[in-house]
Every structure is written in C-alpha cells, then in structure tokens.
Description:
This protein has 456 residues and is of the alpha+beta class. Helices cover 35% and strands 28% of the residues. It binds glycyl-adenosine-5'-phosphate. The site of glycyl-adenosine-5'-phosphate has 19 residues, from strand 11, strand 14, strand 17 and helix 11.
Amino acid sequence: MSENKKEEMDTLVALLKRRGFIYPTALIYDGVAGFFDYGPYGAAMKENIKRVWWEQFVSSRENIYGIDGAIVLPRVMLEASGHVGGFSDPITEDTETGERFRADHLLEEAGVDTEGMSTEDMTEAIEEGEIKSPAGNPLSEARDFNLMLKTQLGSDSGPRGEAYLRPETAQSIFVNFKNILDSFSPKLPFGIAQIGKAFRNEISPRNFVFRIRELEQMEVEYFVREEEWSEHFSEWQNIMNEFASRVGIDPDKLHEVEVSEADRAHYSKRTIDFEFEYPFGQKELWGLAYRTDYDLSRHIEHSGAKLEYFDQESGERFVPHVIEPSLGIERTMLAIFLSAYSTDETGEESRVFLKLPYEIAPVKVAVFPLLKNKPQLTSKAREIFSEIKKEIPATHFDDNGNIGKRYRRQDEIGTPFCITVDFDTLEDDSVTVRHRDTGEQERVAVSDIIAKIKNS
Ligand code: GAP
C-alpha cells in the first residue's frame, strides 16, 4: 500500500474509532486480531444496512422466505457440506519463529500469480523463488489449514460432542430447505434468506474489517430449475447492483469480475465477484455464485432426507439448482465509508464529512440550541427535538461545545440535517436547517421541518 493510501485508511479508521463507530475488541487487553466491536453509530449503521437489504432482498419479494438459523452446527452437517474436509487456506510457517502466514499472500507479494495453485505448487514456488518470511527466515512447506472454529457441546469431550461455529450462513439455509417446503409449499423459483454471524479462523486477519474472524453475512439461496439458472443469475446480479447504489457504494470503484474455474469454490459452476477499490487494492466485496445442486445433493447423500422439489403440474421430482448472492456486512460498511468519506473547504475551514445516504446514516437529524446557557433556547430546542424524534427516531440533541464544533461532529458521523434553534426562533417559530453535503443553510418554519427532511 502506498503512503497516501495507508494514510487514507489510517485516517478513516481513526475517525471511526473516535466517533463511536468501530472499536477493536478487548482493546484494554491489547485487542484480539480479527475481531471488532461496534459502537452506537456503527451498530445503528449495521442495522440500517440490514434493514435495507432485508427490504430489497426479502420482504419486497413474494417468493423469498427469511429465516434465522443456529450458529453452532454439528460436525456431521459440515462434513456433508464439504467444510470439514475442504474449507481451508494454504499456510506456511517461518521455520525459526513458528509464525504462520498465508502462503498465497506471501507469494503474491513476491509477484507470483497463485491462481489455481495447489499447496504442492506453492511449496515449489516458495523454494524456486527463495521466498522468505517477513522476518527474512526460510519458510516451511505450504499445507492446508481448516478455517472453521471448533467447539465442544455439553460434557462429551469425544467426537460426538464436536461442533463448529458456522463458516457461512448458507448451510443453515440448506438444512431448512425441507422445512420451508413442508410449511409453505412454495413454487419454484423461490429463495430462503438469512442475515447472521459466521466465523472463520483466518490465518492473517488484516485491513481493518476487511478480513475478520467473526463476520456477518446476508445471503439468499435461490432455488431454480437447472435450465433457468442463467437468467436468475443475471436477475440477482442486477439486484446486487441496485443495492450497491442504494447504500451509497461508489459505482466507479465497484467492478464485476468473472472468477476463473481454477479460483472458484468447489461447489460453483459460475461466480462473479463484486470487487471494490479499497486503499489496499481492488478486492472482493461480495460474491454471486451458481452453486448447482451441490449442497442439496450432499445433504441428501449424508442425511438420507428427501430434499427434492415435487412439481405438481408435471409430476416431476428433482433437486433444484441454486443461485447465491452473498454479501458480507463489514465489507459493505467499509466500502460505504470509503465511498462517503469527503473533504471540502467551507469558509476558512476545511472539513471532513461522510456523505452517507439518508437511509444508512446512523443519525438523520441533530437539533442544537444556538447557546447552551440560555434556558429559553434550550427548552425551545428540546421541544422541537421531541416533536421531530416522534417522527424520525434517529434524531439527536446536541448542546456540547460551540456551534462550529457541533457541525464538525455531525459532519464526521454523516448526519444529513442539523437544525439550529436561535433567538429568532422564539419570535417567528422558524429554525436554521443546514444541509451536510453543501453546508447550505436555509430558514424553515418549525411546522414544515419534518416534511422538508422527508422530501429532501
Ligand atoms: N456462502 C458463500 C460464501 O460464504 P464467501 O465468498 O466465502 O462465500 C461471502 O463469503 C462474503 O462474505 C464475501 O464476499 C465477503 O463479503 C464476506 N466475507 C467472507 N470472509 C470474510 C472475512 N474473513 N472477513 C470479512 N468478510 C468476509
């Protein structure tokens, strides 16, 4: 990463911590790599992203069933899905310090294209290229490292009690396929959707919330007839683009990349990665995959359950194929922040502001009394604040510091509207409304504030 890009990233990370969006987990104990906590604004923003996604991918459609599955899953289920045997990344060790690294990352940093390489190929490339660890020591052979986080259920310490934190929300969906068929008798095509946590024991978590160990996914498994997969793939590709635009991801930094056969997951016959230009490079934001009938077939094989669709009109019984749009929430947040981060000069001062879409902004409106120590102003401002809050709950009251400081604070958290109550308000019942992106101010009658904000 160049110095400029590093600075861009460091400035954003510092702002998000300072303003109460995202904190490293257990910071008072020096933190734990790959985990983050969300402060009040981060938590609110996550909820907003989820709400928009749920509305667009689930509730506005007739044929999508939203569920909320368990996070801890039995080993047998993840053996069936192929995760126990194959959900791994290539790892190599510094032979002197024992520190572990992603073998493909070290090779790529050394300019080697690792597309389609096996661990044996990587070992060979490490030897041939005399690639060393970051500390300059020789590296071990590359081998696969399973990324699932294991846990043990009850008092049984043997294999029967073995379980895992789910590595993707998708598997909870596949094992509920029959439940949804039995309860709702949906007609093809239909989808099952879920938002929830997933866990991956990443070897080298890095780049802030880009690669973490506890993440949240928003996924749909869309069940279709095999011959119709391509048209539904395009349909979801469009929906993902609409979502990107609605949550404020810069379209100039978003790229759809066809994933080569060698790089696709074992279950996929076609994958498009939605990649974003982060300061640390163009990398995956979301994925759209054609998972064929791989998962349902594996669960049929391993569980013996009849995970088939019965077409009443034709009398056919078959295993549907699957299109999967899969979106990580934390990468979505990061792409939104990087798209929204803006600076400009207002008057004599330069300012930083987050150009977040209204739906995504954690605070929609901030109400200020011009001066804190004038009881008439404060009580009028509180009265106006209470009225607005009834209609727009994400309204905050702020009387801390001078007015310039309050604007700066709200700009940095992306609040679209600031309302100032001043002495004129006491005379004519109007306030100053300031617009975040332009810094423009206009006088608005108190009775018109809500309509003004909702129509902006
Ligand atoms: N069910 C398909 C699946 O899980 P994936 O490409 O492994 O596919 C889907 O993950 C999305 O989840 C990614 O596009 C990304 O947004 C997010 N994601 C995956 N691993 C992540 C990690 N370690 N940290 C943050 N987000 C991650």
